[in-house]
Recover the amino acids of this structure.
């Protein structure tokens, strides 16, 4: 066995050990958010593609969408950039640089908005408002958020007007 093959086998053994530990955590967790995060980790460690259709073309479109959304934010004066996620495990927003906002960016024709919002809610930090920035081909950008967060923002905006 070559040294390179030995390293690959070692990495596979390590990944298998980690995968088993995650599976045990999954079985003992009662928290739905924990289970969702563990499912992502399991898919990544197994080397499975994400549930999104289209493979690398879909990933490129998603990355381009993140760049587009970041450019849109920069037009408004915010110093943003792509979050550069790896398998979605680190919980970073797709675009970072909007204070107190966790941006989940979707550039798809058929969006499951509730799944996208669940992802943003799951990955956000404690003091962040989860949003989904999304657009279809030949359409403008839209931002979706929970009603409770929208009312907080609106009340703040309204109080400034009085």
């Amino acid at each position: 066995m070559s040294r390179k093959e030995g390293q690959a086998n070692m990495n596979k053994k390590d990944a298998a050990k980690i995968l088993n530990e995650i599976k045990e955590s999954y079985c003992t967790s009662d928290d739905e958010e924990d289970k969702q995060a563990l499912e992502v980790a399991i898919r990544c460690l197994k080397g499975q593609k994400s549930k999104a259709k289209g493979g690398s073309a879909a990933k490129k479109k998603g990355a381009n969408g993140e760049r587009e959304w970041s450019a849109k934010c920069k037009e408004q004066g915010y110093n943003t950039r792509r979050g550069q996620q790896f398998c979605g495990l680190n919980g970073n927003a797709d675009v970072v640089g909007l204070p107190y906002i966790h941006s989940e960016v979707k550039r798809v024709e058929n969006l499951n908005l509730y799944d996208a919002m669940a992802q943003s809610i799951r990955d956000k930090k404690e003091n962040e408002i989860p949003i989904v920035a999304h657009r279809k081909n030949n359409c403008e950008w839209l931002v979706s958020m929970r009603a409770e967060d929208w009312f907080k923002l609106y009340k703040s905006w309204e109080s400034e007007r009085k």
User: Anything to note?
Assistant: Residues 3-28 form the longest helix (26 residues). The CA atoms of residues 80 and 96 lie 5 Å apart. The beta strands are 81-82, 95-96, 101-106, 129-134, 142-145. The chain has two domains: 3-46, 56-161.
